[in-house]
Amino acid sequence: MSLPVPDSDALAASHALQRQIAAEIAQQGGAISFARFMELALYAPDLGYYSGGAAKLGAAGDFTTAPELSSLFGATLARVAAAIIAQSAPHILEFGAGTGKLARDVLTALAAQGVRIDSYAIIELSGELRARQQEALKDFPQVRWLDDFPPAFDGVVLANEVLDAMPVQLVSKGADGWRELMVTIEDGAFAFTARAPDAALAQRIARQIPDGAELPDGYVTEVHALGCAFMATLGQMLAKGKGAAILLDYGFPAHEYYLDQRSGGTLMCHYRHHSHPEPFYLPGLQDITAHVDFTAMALAAQDGGADVLAYMSQAAFLLGAGIGELLLELDPSDPVRYLPQAGALHKLVSPAEMGELFKVLVVGHGVELPEAIARADRSHRL
User: Fold this and answer.
1) Torsion on CA atoms 347, 353, 354, 358, rounded to nearest 10
2) Residues spanned by the domain of 118
3) What is the pLDDT of residues 34-60, one digit of tens each?
């Protein structure tokens, strides 16, 4: 692979994390699950990708998210949030708030609408990102940081590109059924080895991949146990109050996720705006993600007690929520302001960009969505 060369400090940090992972592999008898490898690569204290100190987002980082492209994204989410808050309470909870830009844009847009927000709580695992958020949001006294789910919640939950960064188990189909792909060490390097799945994983495979018997031998895919656990907990929290969670991410419903042509799975890594499929490359210095199985996420939220309120493409959600109207509020005769926002809107809604690959899942309890969003619902495709 032709990728940018890290500096000596970054390389030393990656080597330290590799030694830590290797020590755990030895302690566990020679292999760990890929989910555990991914957890360490992303979240090991001080060394993991999200817990270390390197910039993650923007031009100096590894990837750019929708809030970074345009404030129109947050302003559009604020429109839907206002409708939900009117039926519940003036509270927002955001998971994985990135640089804090989405929070700032949402709060600014809600204030312009005259919507008061009593609390904006953020749950953020990355120390580097939490520090950036605290600086970006220092002028918003209602913002606070939490370390875990509140037991119950009324209001709006936001999660933009959160599910894709949750560790996944990898499984491969063989002539004798499904096997779990574990991480071991061969010739001094991380490598995959296979073992029979335990009872819990076998049960998850049967539920998540109901037509697995039709897939070809050698098929590799992901099992989203942690994502499902997150959604079940989210569902339990929402079921105790009134409100809704809006989750935006890239992925597919199950009938599109497990296709013959996706025989290598959806695992993808991001390093300095380069995407590649090698998860063992410089652990701690690159993001590791998997596309989201939105059917599994919706079922898990229902297991927790929440209702599935809507599912649709990001384009349908943003257009239904009025992002086009927000653009029209800008003066087209002012190209310095108008053209960058028009270009960003194109990236957010174009089928060739983020519009179709990214989906929106809304789950909640005791509230209804705005009519334009409800009309765009495609949850029957889950």
Assistant:
1) 170
2) 66-165+226-257+291-381
3) 999 999 999 999 999 988 765 554 545
